Amino acid sequence: MFKMRMFMTSRHRCLRSLVPTLQHVRHKRVHDMNIGQMKLLMDVFGLNYRQTYSIVYKNNTLRTLDQDHIKKVSTALKRLGVTREDIAQHPEVLMVIPVTIENRSMLLQEGGFSTITAQIILSYITVVHKPIRLLKLHRYIPSDVNIIENFLSHLKQRPPPFEPLSPEEESEETAFLDVQLAVLRHYLCWRLELTPKEVAELMKTYSRLKHRSFRLIERALKILEEKVGFSKDKIRRNAYLIHSNPDNTLDTLKRVKSLGGIDIRTLFHKFPKLVMSSTDSLIKIAGHLKQFDIPDEAIQKCPQLFTLSSETVLNRVTALQLVPEFIGLAKNPRVLKLVYHQRKASSRLSYLQDLKIKCVSLHILSSTQAHFERTQVEKELNELPTRPELDVESCQFGTEPHGKRSYIAPEQKLALCLYFIERDFHFTGHGIWADSITAPASAESAI
Question: Model-level pTM greater than 0.85?
Fold first, then answer.
């Protein structure tokens, strides 16, 4: 098996020096307002420059919003009928993610809300915990609306009739959220063939489902089954897929035919979490990897890299250029595992450096924790130099020319592998024996 050896010299120091830089990958840049932003906000609020400036001055966080985000949020609010005046009175609504606005407003409409305002969106959590009686009293919901029936009416495929609810659930003193969750549990039990206990565990694990629109859930499940080819069992085992974005899934199937030479549907089946990545992110990451000549073979060995943000991938791949042997590293089939497990790899490099280990493979840096613990060179260092009687035959590495055989314990195989790899080239003992230990001639000949 091919391994790229990375010596604890300039290359390791370069990799470790990247950690502070990469930790800032996800930090959003804060910048001053520019003319384009001000004009856009003036249009969103329907106000002149002075009035808009006054709002921005009082809500300094608006300075951090880029124009694309503002456009998406304002478009979503307009679709809901939220007026410019309402947005100007509650400008903090522009800070909400567009998909959150869409999902929460759809759920409220499904429950009978006749009007959606900026204040309702901002106070969503408080509102859904209010009793139905109070919501009807304030005319958020018409007095004649049956909440349960209203939820079910938005489904194209309705579940069987409800089992009788408890007196508490039937009462209008029940909170809006409690009624909605009762309907959701009933729907998921029927749609995914789950028991009430399984649904309870599922919703405990994936709490975001509690505030997911029924229409979005129904569409997501339909697309996953009919377009992607997932079975109910596949969805049950990867229940986070229930709150996948149906429009994004369709967009990905249309615009991303393959990644790393593998059909996108095949990748979805092998790594279902990729369904949750945005189409634009997948395309950007593929572009970054092509820019740095990362081969398809490397992508095939680590497709989970596409679950990271495109900015994170770009920064981490760019960072590899600081390594002197970048060209060789970039062509290594396992290089993307090092990129994907960057934090873990950096931590392990630090640990191995403390042990004064002189060399380490990409596999060791990115392997599972259990494997890493089994192959910690610390264990090999303790006994190998002082046990010339160990038998090589049990390791299935054959017999040395001189015919002498020694026993090697399973946990010492890594050190022996390093020896055989370097024996015909430049055997230094680095990575096998500590600097303070010099192996006796008899021990070396025994190996």
Answer: no
